Amino acid sequence: MESRKNILTEKGKLNCSGVFFDENLIYNKNKIPFYLRSRIKERDYYSFSNEKISFLITIANNSYMSYVSFSLIDLIKKDYITKTYLSLLSPKKITLSKTPLNRNIEIKDSRFYISIKKVDNLIKIAAKFTHFTNKLDLSLKLDVKRNSANSSIYILHPFKNKHQFYYNFKENLLLGNGYLKLGNNEKLDFIGDGVYDFGRGIWPYKTEWFWISTSSIKDNIGFNLGFGFGNSEETENMVYNDNQNFKLDDLTLDIPKIKNKIDYLSERKLSSKNNDINLTFTPIINRKDSLDFLILSTRQNQVFGRFNGTIKTKEKIIEFKDSLGFIEHFKNRW
Fold first, then answer.
1. What is the pLDDT of residues 238-276, one digit of tens each?
2. Distance CA 243, CA 128 (A)
């Protein structure tokens, strides 16, 4: 492991950028100038899926606004429920760690409870969300096994303004085993594949990105793809196979439109200039969500579906057959 490096200089400007494969970055947020601290955005995100359902947990502290969100997606009935517990001007309700690994989180509120405990390669998640649907509470317990250190990536995104940055960690090929329970109904046993997204930093007022991900423990393959966020010349595009990671270059995503609006439920192609990426994505369901507070807004379209095709590395050709994953499109003003 390289010697650890502070993200920010003494004057709070970005110190380095790019892609890393060890936790050698220090999120020294105390160097952020006081007048910019209301712009800090921090979030932890978990997504798990099997052939029947997907569910998502988001924990966020945006300085002037914190929130916890849980989504439950029925992939068979093509339906979903999202419940967001928002706290305006109450950042102290949620405290998130400065590092993605081996740090615990416990958040108590009259509306929800979340505990995330990390020990070595195991993550224990326990949560309860009141009045999730039809006034019924939703409970969750999950033991999450990390597959390999070679299925994750650290990214430090730069922006034009040197005081703006985003420290990001994404980990694929998580295996979740546990249950969900709605009200007094029987427990719904769950085994599925997952991804973890850790982010800390200061963004521009307007941001937009596409994030594309799939994980399959059974086939021991997955990938993390993305574009549109930050000014980095280095991509975050990675493919994982047999406990190895392979860096990819550019990504081209076909974005079908009808009357100048994105048609999120049309089949689309993923490719690259060097022809290393040759994938087709067939949508199942679009989980839409939005928040609007006059000058503050977010628009989310997270489309779950299946990937088919190949990704070529210098060492091998990796084939994807009906691999379950998502394409996420975010547009923010905040």
1. 999 999 999 999 999 999 999 999 999 999 999 999 999
2. 34
Burial label for 274, CB within 10 Å (0-12, 13-18, 19+), is exposed
- Structure tokens given for 44: 């932890």
Find tokens 């703006």 and name the residue.
164
CB neighbours of residue 315 within 10 Å: 9
Span 181-191, pLDDT tens digits: 999 999 999 99
The pair of three-digit structure tokens given for residue 67, joined into one six-digit string: 């929130």
Tell the residue number behind the tokens 């990704």, with chain if given.
311
| 3-class secondary structure per residue, 50-93 | CCCEEEEEEEEECCCEEEEEEEEEECCCCEEEEEEEEEECCHHH
What 3-state class would DSSP assign to 326? strand
Q: Taking the CA of residue 110 as centre, how many other CA atoms within 13 Å lie in the half-sphere pointing to its CB?
A: 1
Tokens of 308: 């088919």
> What is the rounded CA–CA span in Å between residue 2 and residue 101?
17
- State the pTM of this model: 0.95
Residue 116's nearest CA partner among 141, 134, 136 is 141
CA dist list (Å): 8 to 13, 128, 229: 5, 36, 19
